[in-house]
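S.,

Sequence below, as promised.
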Amino acid sequence: MRETYYKIPFDFGTLLDEEQGMQERCSEKESIYRHIELLITTCPGEHIYDRDFGSEIWDMDFERIVSLETWKTKFKKFLCKAISAYERRISGCDLKLEVSDVLHENVSDTNVSVRKRVDIYIETTVVSSGERLNLHHRLYLGPLSKQ
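The prediction came back faster than expected:
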């Protein structure tokens, strides 16, 4: 039996439109990617029906980084916990992180802020097909300093 997957964000206007009445669909791989993306960008407590949904990485958003390796280990642990709890269509999730500093300059008031950019690379296997899946998500974390 083939499953049906819908694109997110869900467009209720399309669903309620009498002429169209159909929501856009997507492949299982795209559905998995979008669901993992939603897990990464949701802070636990934001989802009204499941307060545990999301990733605890947002507790680290403004955290001062003393050791980058310790921070990356903690970040990976939080992501793996969320993905293994909420995305059952994959197995063998392997995470890699690349962390870099990004300068943002505001031309109007000459403020400069430094933010952390985290590139998240996920290698996994789709359970239903055995196919390898490589995902990439780029995330910017809160301003670390202002000058």
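Residues 68-86 form the longest helix (19 residues).

Coffee later?
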